[in-house]
């Protein structure tokens, strides 16, 4: 699925984890271009988030600190200590980057089960407002008496709305603007916290039934309450003859996988790859009751880093946008190259994409046969078969 990427981050981070460039995947003996390094653009919201502490407007606390939707970077390393900081991050490349640099990354369920309350809760809120409000409610609930919530967003990712929401929930003690971002913080809690409002907001991104109850989804997941037209086009032309071991790259909440299982009785196993843990949890829930003998495997994984098995077929609706809404065709190109590497000779890729995206060269270089199976509403459906003489 061409999903919404995480909130404002340097464009290069979406396809690269922790600044570590993976080895190129060869196709037809030629190296696929390496993913762009992450060292260049700075993470403006992350840098602005720590300005109140760097400038002396706020003291850094002695007690434990929690960072929700955490991202690694120099401002974090300069200010915080791994001994006192706990990070939560559901997007796999960012979680891996944090772990590789020594930060303690915990899942939401682990943090909720722990009785720890934090002297400071840092938040990089998402753009989706219901999801962001639920995150603010969690932040307040996890803050110790006398502690603060500090948040930052870029101006084009909902900063004014986020500031207004935290003001409504807790009252504000201060704010600043820098790097086209807005950083804002509460007074020491409980301050003016509205408990009833906090309870309502905490439920805003709870999983719920969508599409007449066929699926469960939640705000913040790509196309969370609908079937996007690109995926609908792929399903309309999905071959019912697909068989053997397949994969869904960028599976989202599981729509394409559910349709594969519903339409393709000869599938024996299906692997779902998804970088966003919140979406993968939904996919597991959405597929668990489907009556199909196929073995299902769920991978919280960055597809651009490679796959874990060889496949007879792959379906994909890959992401192609940066957080700044600019096109990043190299993300989809990387999906294609990774798919070619993971397909067995004679295996096929069925991929849907925006019509303008330049995928033809990598498709032609990676596959023995390539055709446009359908076009509609600005989308193109590609069917590609890996040559039988290709190297695994």
From TrEMBL:
PROSITE patterns: N6_MTASE. Keywords: Cytoplasm, Methyltransferase, rRNA processing, S-adenosyl-L-methionine, Transferase. It comes from the Bacteria. One of its GO terms (molecular function) is S-adenosylmethionine-dependent methyltransferase activity. GO terms for biological process: methylation; rRNA processing. Residues 214-382 form the Methyltransferase small domain. This is Ribosomal RNA small subunit methyltransferase C. It comes from Xanthomonas euvesicatoria pv. vesicatoria (strain 85-10) (Xanthomonas campestris pv. vesicatoria). The lineage of its organism: Bacteria, Pseudomonadati, Pseudomonadota, Gammaproteobacteria, Lysobacterales. The gene is rsmC.
